[in-house]
Amino acid sequence: MKATVWAGRNSVEVRSVPDPKILNDRDAIVRITSTAICGSDLHLYDGYIPTVKRGDVLGHEFMGEVVEVGKGVKNLAAGDRVVVPFPIACGACAACERGLFSLCENSNPNAGIAEKFMGHSPAGLFGYSHMLGGFAGGQAEYARVPFADVGPLKIDDDLTDEQALFLSDILPTGYMGAEMCGIAPGDVVAVWGAGPVGIFAIISAYLLGASKVVAIDRVPYRLELAQKVGATPVNFEETSVLAELQDITAGRGPDHCIDAVGMEARNGTTVVDAYDRVKQAMRLETERPQALREAAMSCRNGGTISIIGVYGGLMDKFPIGAVMNRSLTIKTGQCHVQRYMRPLLERIRNGDIDPTIIVSHHLSLDQAPHGYEIFKHKQERCTKVILKP
């Protein structure tokens, strides 16, 4: 089959790789009908996630048709149309029983590697390094889905792939980012990053009762999309984010701050931005945490910082003094996608959320390298790329 594979830093290729096979009674094989390039994939593309190997199949946002199931899978059959969550979860461990599916204790066969980096291992993830399981991803014609009796969600024909695909990751991630804030009616929320996850966080914040959401980014067309879904745009290359948020909130700061950027944040041409870029390039720190720093300094006293942007390791100069002395609460995590898929599917059906608003490009799988380039470099007004195998 054809698949998008990591070919070195800033390089992906579409190659012929072996077809996946059933390896466990709880496996399923899915023929991919739609897959997508995620902002998290760019961290792999840029070479900042450790234990990625040349030839690894990428992609963790995918859906398609079941073509084969192991004998332990009773809830799916060949021909079922499914969307697949990016965390792989067994459904039976202590974490899964608590609904913490991205922390599954049984799905990462390489847990020992993750423990050396993080202390404890999270769940295995599709297409996201050997530290997180070494599972082949979904930017391919077919994918093996472990624990298929737990993860995949059946999708009826009343929804298009475009409407359902993002239940695999970015829609639940944006929603969880807003939910972790504990938004009360009338609250003001600031969201760093107006990419796909940030847009879904904005929409979710309003669904949960926010009176105003501020979107912080530097790319005009992304800020236009944020404004289209109701956010107040702030371009950090044109103004001081802290000063703007003070003005908007009459000096108090936002009640909640959502970091939807993660480890490759930018801050224009400031000295701090140059410091972070040099240290990250030299692997002296793994993160560029400017968005998170601004969130900590901007948030009102007693407010909440929600982190859904991906971080991989260590950062410098984080203002922990502001967090501690001003009673800020930090909540974070890879999304527990399985917890949110069904409720958000109903939100889509009810018309509360239109996931298609973020889609800018439909490309064939063979065009994946072009998709990565335009997404990374913000070309062609690219907001989200769907690949069709």
Automatic annotation (TrEMBL):
Protein family per UniProt: Belongs to the zinc-containing alcohol dehydrogenase family.
InterPro entries per record: ADH-like_C, ADH-like_N, ADH_Zn_CS, GroES-like_sf, NAD(P)-bd_dom_sf
Gene3D superfamilies for this protein: Medium-chain alcohol dehydrogenases, catalytic domain (3.90.180.10), NAD(P)-binding Rossmann-like Domain (3.40.50.720)
Domain Alcohol dehydrogenase-like C-terminal: 196-267
Pfam families with a match to the protein in the record: ADH_N (PF08240), ADH_zinc_N (PF00107)
GO molecular function ontology, one term from the record: oxidoreductase activity
Annotated protein name in UniProt: Glutathione-dependent formaldehyde dehydrogenase
Cofactor field: Zn(2+)
Entry keyword set: Metal-binding, Oxidoreductase, Zinc
Domain annotation Alcohol dehydrogenase-like N-terminal: ranges: 25-153
Source organism per UniProt: Mycobacterium saskatchewanense
